[in-house]
């Protein structure tokens, strides 16, 4: 929970748009913006309320940009995309599912970047002896490879987070440009030191290429289909890994080693052009200053420092310095401290962490990181040491050795593709991962039996078995990690996973060299070889053969018997290394078996995202003009009217029990429908509680899919204003309900017998209306039905227009709502919508219509008071105290949000706890405060003289009205109270001395949660400050509620009349 002080000394200088009556709104003037494909989201901030712009400040300073997003704690950081255009951490959502044709264009563009990155990791390996000989720097030649790996490894998580801040396309272009510059510098390097430095520059850009490719694929392809495309990416990686040594060997032998770098320029240039002109990705809007303030500089520097401190000593050990030496041990110990400091920084200080610590608490994600670390080391060890085996043990040339390892890469490529297809088809990944590691371990065990006399056929067979196992694990582990987290953390998990893969490769490549070199030193020393010869062999063991790319007369002049001993010693080290690698992959199989959990590869919003992708492709093909708003709206305020004809109290003060029964029936229907809807979105047909079914409609009816569920009855709504839909505008009275999400109006196809005298929505008369393929049928408890197609059209409130709002155009309405003159506009999360549609505010923010992703409600029953709904801001003139913020809680077992609800809340009666800590749902669509039946019984047991009445209602002595309040958050430092006159719903006719309490006991399918209606929102506020012995301050003011979509939180404050 966070607190922000009340504003002071603010002058009212803004304008408000009143929309209380039907004619209060002028005709909507449509403003054409890109639909959900572009977003200019700015998140709420941690600045004091005095510094936070309210609606009036925003309207008077329209070009003001938002400050940095506030630090998000673990609970809030784990938030997901709600089809709102951004994540809970304030970063823009860049998800943009596309049709297959567009995916292929994106995909081919990305494969060039992947090829560049992995080609450069391996192309130098075969040319390294020539480079070493050219600069006469054998001992430092290993840094040519490790410099690239060091910087590329350190930058991977950083590039991933930078792409969240600046956008994928811009960041990918930056990576390619840096990589090209580094390649050019390497090609013209004049000393070994220069080459090592420039290789580090190459790695700086190269580290982002593969990470961003996998992230972008995840942005444009659904989770279930991702394995297929990432499998093809692995094919590109395998081709680059297999072709790199071969190409490097050819260039080193036939042309010049410098062409290992020159070749990147034409490929990189072509890649750059393709990305610029053919990669259609969502941009991230906002000022450069805003974006720079979001970067986790501390985390980035500590990542680089920790990576350098662990990689450098591994390269020094046994070569430049003894393993037990100050530089080596000092750096290794410093790396441990740097990693510890990194995690502490990310936990305590980072606003948008490079690697949020809580992702490591997820057992599946942690397991994937672990197995990827080890697998990365095994993969790179195979790539480096199998060609060396052919060159050293069998005397093959660099080109020939490159050819002989192609079997490993071809088999890996094939089985990566097969595994991706099977995962997409079955929705399962764990069997492939566990089985793949087991088979891979067997293959490595067979490689550990190789010697200088093993037949080529056996070696190739062993490589194919390795490829069979390896191919099943490479991208399936990525899918497993992404399936285990919310979409908001997808880029982080992807980049950290790639970091682990590269870090493992870097570490175990050095460990492999250490094992082989120490074996050579020990064995050759025992055989009495001259130390100079031993040193030369360690520098380049291939130099004993005339086929070597390097020339060393000392080694080539050795006797055949000496060369044979050198080969035997090297093979012994190679076999020891294979034993170690076998153990690592065996451990991976065990870890995967125990810790990998099954997660669904289907997300609730994917069908909606795919539909939007098709709309985007259609608009792009038709070249529809779209003009972006120069400045998002600074916020609008609507004054709400109250429905006096729905009073729950008679004029004589007695309770209108018929109205109360109707209200409870409405709530029961509404929350039953809500539960079925969110459970259907969460679990689909696998949920036994969800009674929704899908049916096929004929093509003539143009209704591909129908949803059958129970919809809420809006006949007892209280707070309403005017909303316009379509072009030209058609005006409707709308009640605003934070406890639901659908936007339903009666269409012109609805006869009076079905829709009464309601205003009609004429779909055909709107030039901007598009009928979707979704059809909604809703069954009511009274046996009547509402149904109609889902239409996408413009919707305007107070002159601000969204272009792609989903509207249920009802052709039939329940008799219980047909004659009510207001329609319903939900303001809750998309999971409560029948078709997982975003409500108006989510759509508006997604389209960049509002500068800030907030809406706020101030409701009052006070004489002369004004009830307001503000979109895009809050209204400072109604605030008279501190704003307390609370994270929005989820339903148990669901990864996305549904209601605007606060967790860890307690009810109090007369200052004493009257129940356990539960969630509280804030619902503007009801008057009542609803508790589960058992909780209501506990609550009223603390109310002196209370008795059960009927239908969940209780009575109490009218002259002993209780003091009722609610605390929110982990510490009851503030109580929000309900005044006696608001708690009293009226006396009962049979006994005027007994009054009905506003807390009603109903089991509405929300578990232990309470529902706080406007009896809570419109009541006066009592705040108890402090922690132990609190001082009481009575404000006699109404509760003002701020709904912060950007950070998924609720702000409560005492407002000013």
Structure, described:
Helices cover 46% and strands 16% of the residues. Helix 5 runs antiparallel to helix 6 and helix 19 runs antiparallel to helix 20. The strands form 5 sheets. Strands 17, 18, 19, 20, 23, 24, 27 and 28 form an 8-stranded mixed sheet that branches. Strands 1-16-32-31-14-15-2 form a 7-stranded antiparallel sheet, with no helix packed on it. The chain is elongated, with a radius of gyration of 33 Å. The chain is an alpha+beta fold.
Set out the fold topology.
Blueprint: E1 2-4, H1 55-60, H2 74-77, H3 100-135, H4 142-166, H5 168-187, H6 192-220, H7 223-254, H8 259-262, H9 264-278, H10 288-294, H11 297-316, H12 326-348, H13 363-393, H14 398-404, H15 406-426, H16 430-447, H17 456-471, H18 476-483, H19 490-526, H20 531-539, H21 553-556, H22 560-595, H23 606-622, E2 636-639, E3 641-642, H24 657-683, E4 694-695, E5 705-709, E6 719-725, E7 730-737, E8 743-747, H25 752-755, E9 760-761, E10 770-779, E11 785-797, E12 800-810, H26 815-818, E13 823-826, H27 840-846, E14 854-858, E15 868-871, E16 883-887, E17 901-909, E18 912-913, E19 918-922, E20 929-931, H28 933-940, E21 947-950, E22 953-957, E23 964-967, E24 975-978, H29 980-983, E25 984-988, E26 991-997, E27 999-1001, E28 1010-1012, H30 1014-1017, E29 1020-1025, E30 1031-1038, E31 1040-1044, E32 1049-1053
Parallel strand pairs: 5-10, 7-13, 8-9, 8-12, 19-28, 20-27
Antiparallel strand pairs: 1-16, 2-15, 3-6, 4-5, 6-7, 6-11, 8-13, 10-11, 11-12, 14-15, 14-31, 16-32, 17-18, 17-19, 17-23, 20-28, 21-22, 22-26, 23-24, 25-26, 29-30, 31-32
Helix pairs in contact: 3-4, 3-6, 3-7, 3-9, 4-5, 4-6, 4-11, 4-19, 5-6, 5-9, 6-19, 7-14, 7-15, 7-18, 11-12, 11-19, 13-14, 13-18, 13-19, 13-22, 15-17, 16-17, 16-22, 19-20, 19-22
């Amino acid at each position: 929970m966070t607190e922000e002080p009340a504003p002071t000394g603010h002058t009212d200088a803004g304008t408000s748009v009143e929309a209380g009556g039907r004619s209060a709104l002028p005709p909507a003037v449509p403003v054409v913006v890109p639909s959900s494909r572009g977003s200019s989201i700015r998140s709420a901030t941690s600045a004091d309320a005095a510094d936070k712009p309210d609606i009036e400040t925003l309207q008077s300073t329209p070009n003001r940009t938002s400050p940095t997003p506030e630090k998000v704690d673990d609970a809030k950081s784990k938030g997901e995309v709600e089809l709102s255009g951004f994540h809970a951490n304030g970063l823009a959502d860049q998800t943009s599912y596309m049709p297959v044709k567009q995916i292929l264009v994106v995909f081919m563009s990305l494969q060039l970047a992947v090829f560049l990155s992995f080609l450069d990791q391996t192309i130098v390996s075969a040319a390294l002896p020539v480079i070493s000989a050219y600069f006469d720097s054998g001992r430092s030649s290993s840094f040519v490879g490790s410099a690239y790996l060091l910087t590329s490894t350190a930058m991977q998580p950083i590039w991933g987070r930078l792409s969240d801040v600046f956008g994928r396309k811009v960041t990918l272009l930056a990576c390619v440009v840096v990589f090209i510059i580094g390649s050019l510098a390497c090609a013209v390097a004049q000393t070994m030191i220069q080459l090592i430095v420039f290789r580090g520059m190459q790695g700086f850009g190269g580290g982002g290429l593969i990470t961003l490719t996998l992230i972008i694929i995840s942005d444009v392809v659904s989770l279930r289909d991702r394995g297929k495309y990432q499998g093809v990416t692995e094919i590109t990686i395998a081709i680059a890994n297999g072709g790199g040594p071969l190409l490097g060997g050819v260039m080193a032998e036939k042309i010049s080693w410098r062409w290992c770098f020159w070749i990147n320029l034409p490929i990189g240039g072509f890649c750059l052009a393709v990305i610029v002109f053919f990669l259609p990705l969502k941009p991230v809007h906002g000022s450069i200053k805003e974006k720079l303030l979001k970067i986790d500089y501390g985390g980035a520097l500590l990542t680089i420092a920790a990576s350098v401190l662990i990689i450098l000593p591994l390269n020094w050990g046994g070569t430049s310095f003894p393993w037990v030496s100050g530089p080596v041990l000092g750096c290794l110990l410093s790396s441990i401290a740097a990693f510890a400091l990194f995690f502490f920084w990310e936990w305590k200080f980072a606003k948008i962490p490079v690697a949020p610590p809580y992702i490591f608490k997820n057992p599946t994600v942690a397991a994937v990181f672990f197995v990827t670390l080890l697998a990365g080391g095994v993969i790179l060890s195979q790539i480096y040491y199998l060609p060396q085996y052919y060159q050293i043990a069998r005397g093959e040339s660099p080109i020939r050795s490159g050819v002989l390892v192609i079997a490993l890469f071809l088999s890996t490529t094939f089985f990566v593709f097969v595994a991706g297809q099977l995962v997409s088809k079955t929705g399962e990944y764990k069997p492939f991962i566990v089985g793949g590691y087991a088979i891979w371990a067997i293959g490595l065990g067979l490689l550990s039996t190789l010697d200088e006399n093993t037949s080529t056929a056996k070696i190739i067979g062993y490589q194919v078995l390795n490829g069979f196992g390896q191919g099943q694990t490479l991208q399936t582990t990525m899918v497993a990690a992404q399936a285990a987290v919310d979409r908001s953390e997808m880029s982080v998990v992807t980049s950290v996973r790639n970091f682990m893969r590269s870090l493992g490769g870097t570490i175990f490549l050095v460990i492999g060299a250490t094992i082989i070199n120490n074996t050579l030193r020990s064995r050759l020393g025992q055989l009495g070889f001259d130390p100079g010869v031993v040193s030369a062999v360690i520098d380049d063991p291939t130099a004993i053969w005339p086929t070597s790319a390097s020339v060393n007369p000392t080694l080539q002049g050795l006797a055949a018997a000496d060369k044979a001993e050198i080969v035997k010693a090297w093979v012994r080290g190679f076999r020891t290394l294979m034993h170690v690698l076998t153990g690592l992959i065996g451990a991976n199989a065990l870890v995967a078996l125990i810790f990998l959990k099954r997660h669904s590869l289907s997300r609730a919003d994917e069908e909606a995202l795919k539909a939007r992708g098709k709309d985007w492709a259609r608009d792009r093909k038709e070249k529809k003009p779209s003009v972006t708003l120069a400045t998002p709206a600074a916020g609008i305020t609507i004054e709400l009217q109250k429905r006096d004809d729905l009073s729950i109290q008679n004029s004589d003060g007695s309770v209108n029990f018929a109205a109360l029964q109707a209200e409870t029936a409405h709530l029961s229907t509404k929350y039953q429908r809500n539960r079925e809807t969110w459970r259907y979105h969460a679990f689909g047909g696998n949920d036994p509680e969800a009674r929704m079914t899908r049916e096929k409609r004929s093509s003539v009816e143009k209704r591909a899919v129908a949803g059958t569920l129970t919809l809420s009855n809006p006949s007892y709504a209280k707070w309403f204003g005017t909303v316009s839909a379509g072009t030209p505008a058609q005006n409707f009275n709308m009640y605003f309900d934070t406890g639901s999400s659908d936007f339903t109006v009666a269409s012109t196809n609805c006869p009076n017998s079905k829709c009464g005298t309601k205003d009609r929505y004429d779909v055909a008369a709107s030039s901007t209306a598009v009928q979707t393929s979704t059809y909604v049928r809703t069954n009511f408890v009274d046996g009547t039905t509402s149904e109609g197609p889902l239409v996408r059209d413009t919707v305007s409130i107070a002159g601000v227009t969204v272009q792609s709002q989903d509207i249920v155009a009802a052709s039939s309405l329940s008799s219980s709502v047909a004659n009510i003159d207001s329609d319903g506009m939900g303001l809750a999360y998309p999971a409560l919508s029948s078709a997982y549609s975003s409500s108006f505010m989510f759509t508006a923010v997604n389209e960049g219509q509002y500068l800030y992703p907030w809406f706020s409600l101030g409701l009052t029953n006070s004489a002369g008071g004004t009830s307001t709904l503000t979109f895009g801001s809050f209204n400072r003139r109604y605030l008279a105290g501190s704003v307390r913020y609370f994270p929005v809680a989820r339903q148990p077992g669901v990864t996305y949000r549904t209601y605007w609800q606060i967790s860890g809340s307690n009810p109090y009666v007369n200052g004493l706890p009257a129940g356990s800590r539960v969630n509280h749902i804030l619902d503007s669509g009801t008057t009542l405060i609803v508790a589960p039946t058992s909780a209501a019984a506990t609550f009223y047991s603390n109310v002196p003289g209370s008795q059960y009445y009927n239908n969940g209602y209780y009575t109490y002595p009218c002259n002993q009205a209780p003091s009722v309040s609610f605390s929110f958050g982990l510490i009851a430092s503030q109580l929000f109270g309900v005044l006696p006159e608001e708690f009293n719903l009226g006396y009962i006719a049979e006994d005027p001395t007994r009054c009905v309490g506003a807390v009603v006991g109903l089991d509405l399918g929300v578990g232990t949660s309470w529902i706080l209606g406007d009896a809570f929102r419109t009541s006066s506020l009592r705040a108890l400050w402090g922690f132990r012995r609190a001082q009481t301050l009575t404000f006699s003011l109404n509760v003002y509620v701020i709904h912060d979509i950007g950070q998924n939180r609720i702000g409560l404050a005492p407002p000013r009349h």
